[in-house]
Amino acid sequence: MKIIGSYVSPYVRKVLACMALKGIEDYEIDPITPFFGDDEFARLSPLRRIPVLIHGGLVLNDSTIICAWLDETFPGHPLLPADPADRARARWLEEYADTRMGDVFIWGLFYQKIVCPLVWGEPGDAERIERTLAEDVPAVLDYLEGQVPAEGFLFGEIGIADIAIASFFRNAAYARFTIDAVRWPKTAAFVTRTLAHDCFARFKPFEDAQLSTDPKGRRAALLAAGAPLVEQSCGTRQPVRGMMRL
Ligand SMILES: N[C@@H](CCC(=O)N[C@@H](CS)C(=O)NCC(=O)O)C(=O)O
Questions:
Q1: How far apart are CA 174 and CA 113, in angstroms?
Q2: 2-77+205-225 belongs to which CATH class?
């Protein structure tokens, strides 16, 4: 099995966390940033997005599709709760995280603060960052505060909804955002608890290696940290603008 996508992507992290829960250890990873994908990447990922999962002749795109396939294919820890109403709620929270939290935390913060200067050599949109922090982030946190439990996970055992939500807060932290635990105490504690779970914690050294090195030293740093890297990457040195949002 092969995963294409950087350890720092919230959607790749979501897939890797689900694989960890399922005990899937036999895979390789090509940890590219989506903007540095070659023609082979464009062929495998028509939206030029990560993650991509390849298993034999099967190529899967989109973290939700990938995680559903993992859950239907591999035994072990179920990613969805058993009760139909809970399953529906878990799917909704996954969708809410992937779409709204993606818009707010990735496109509104992480992309503006980290990706723009690093990949495009230009500052992010300061007005957008300000609006995101003043309006969009509080609205997301108000909603989550009414959803997450004071203790434990959303539906008993940790599952897809917990993982999808918590994953974005790693990127938020990279963009130097922390949850105000006085205003949103349940969400702050839930995120800390979920990100501390082994299914997330085990990948942190790879994220640190990815973030703290320049492209030249990255492969060596990731290998040194124990990342199961592919031999042949579909990464390239010249960045290509994404097609979904510019
Ligand atoms: N709905 C997709 C979203 C994937 C996504 O947006 N990935 C980001 C990386 S964090 C990406 O590839 N962005 C590049 C782009 O949209 O151009 C999923 O769940 O996999």
A1: 9
A2: alpha beta
* Ligand 1 centroid – CA 29 distance (Å): 17
pTM of the model: 0.97
Nearest residue by C-alpha to atom 15 in ligand 1: 242
| Residue 214: HSE in the Cβ half-sphere, 13 Å Cα cutoff | 2
Q: Return the residue whose CA atom lies nearest to atom 10 of ligand 1.
A: 9
- The Cβ of residue 83 has, within 10 Å, a number of other Cβ atoms equal to 12
CATH of 84-199, one of 3.30.70.100, 1.10.510.10, 3.40.50.1110, 1.20.1050.10: 1.20.1050.10
Q: Consecutive sets of 10 residues in the chain, 246 residues long: mean pLDDT of each?
A: 98 98 98 95 97 98 98 97 98 98 97 94 96 98 98 98 98 98 98 98 97 92 97 92 72
